[in-house]
Amino acid sequence: MECIFCLKKNEAKSIEHIVSESLGNTIYLMERGRVCDACNKRFANFEREALSSTVLLMERARMGIPNKKGNAAQGVIGKIGIQGNKDFLKNLVTLGGLPQEEIADWDPQKQTFSLKLPAFDKNEVAVSKTLLKIGLESLFTSKRKVFKKYDFTQLRQFLDNSDPTEWPMVVFSGKTIGTFESIPINIHKYHLSRFRCSLLFQEKDSRTLLFKFSYGGIHMMINLLNRDLDWLEEQQAPATHDTIYPAHYRKKLEKHLEKKAKDVVVATAKK
To answer: Which residues constitute the domain of residue 215?
Structure first.
């Protein structure tokens, strides 16, 4: 059977979870052999980083999701240790090493405070790769016609490190533009919804295939086809809390928008 990532024939022994088992998924799986053992092993490294040292760790712990070994979620975000409840009780998380400067709005009567956590700790690339991997696997499994329509060469090169140039993604809290459709259907869609996970897509044009990943209160979006910034311009417009990662893409987007604005002025002047 041919691996959908490296395109090599293989007899894989490992089972590939489209959404990690450590996020709660137990039945939405790839057909054996569609992801070879070599790719599976490589993916495990960045997926582990994405799930144990980013905002996704906090959501796993907050929702009481056990990891694949059946233990409570734990890891570190920045300098703060995160430990999910050992009995998997929801909304009960133990935090360690809290820096005083990150604690605000302390209310001694209610015993509550606000805590600022970094969404990512220099591991945006691991998250981008995880999103691209989930997006391609889910399309292949549940939307084969869509999968066959597009060229995923750049995605494959990014995941196998032959082109390590960073790939932009957006973490958003506002509304998105356009209609998105669920990738998994029926039992798989229901299974993912039980731990507040959804995988959606939107076809824009030959260079823009948007993948929207939601988990708990975290919502992320990425273009599966390339690193272009055009889609960011449209999706950023309605929201005030969208954040682009890696951070240097924020300046690139600003320059991109400035150039487009100048081009419009020049075109208008010529008319």
So the answer is: 155-270
